Amino acid sequence: MKTLITILFSFLLxxxxxxxxxxxxxxxxxxxFALFASNSDFNADHPAPLVYIHETxxxxxITFSTPDGKDxxxxxxxxxxxxxxxxxxxxxxxxxNEHIKREAENLFNxxxxxxxxxxxxxxxxxxTTQAEAQKYMGSMKTDRGKSIVEGAMAFAGDGAIFGTIGWxxxxxxxxxxxxxxGSAAQACVMxxxxxxxxxxxxxxLKAPVLGIFGSQDQWIxxxxxxxxxxxxxxxxxxxxxxxxxxxxxxxxxxxPQFDQEATADAYAKTLAFLKANLK
Length: 279
Description:
CATH topology: Rossmann fold
Shape: globular
Largest sheet: 8 strands, mixed
CATH class: Alpha Beta
Number of helices: 9
Number of domains: 1
Number of strands: 10
Helix content: 25-40%
Radius of gyration: 17 Å
CATH superfamily: Alpha/Beta hydrolase fold, catalytic domain
Strand content: 15-25%
Distance between the termini: 52 Å
């Protein structure tokens, strides 16, 4: 029987829980983050989301094809005037819930001329309990996630340019999506997500990154951020770090204990960054 063991990511100075038999050093950053699903302390840092039903004005759920032969879902908001600008919004570990739809619509309204696609990385599953979120995030596979991202980019069509944003689980996927987009990428915002550590991969980035983190975060902690800054510098890539005196998930729209002041400041910086680069 496989047993849970605690693994120290020495190059990240970061604790995580993994299963015996997993080769962690070669595990994609998105799956390294998914290993946290088995950690009770990580679960405790994510209280159940407040009940909320989003009444959209401009959005609708869509289905699109993905390269692996399956369909994927997303909450889509189309710019009022035809635009080749797209923002991919990637949910935190609860899934594409009503809070994320609200956040996507806020970004849509504030950006003005950008199409917004909030991706469903859990293929229709939305967690309302920690046990469900643990199951969905822990079983998420990188290949499927990449296929969903690629499908969304194909849906946007030729000539589309992309910004990305995500929180927690989605923060790592925001960076991954920017790498997938290649030369079509214009801007990446990642809120306390697991950074890619492979300098060779980081060298392929074609867009600047805004990283938003909490100094009290014991998961994507300041040492992880310092390593990310070092690797991005070595790769010759643009990274702006905003560090708040806050814990992990401080700005998650699903979090009933979010830090309002830090969230508002981070959102203002996010909007300024996206407007300056997604053009």
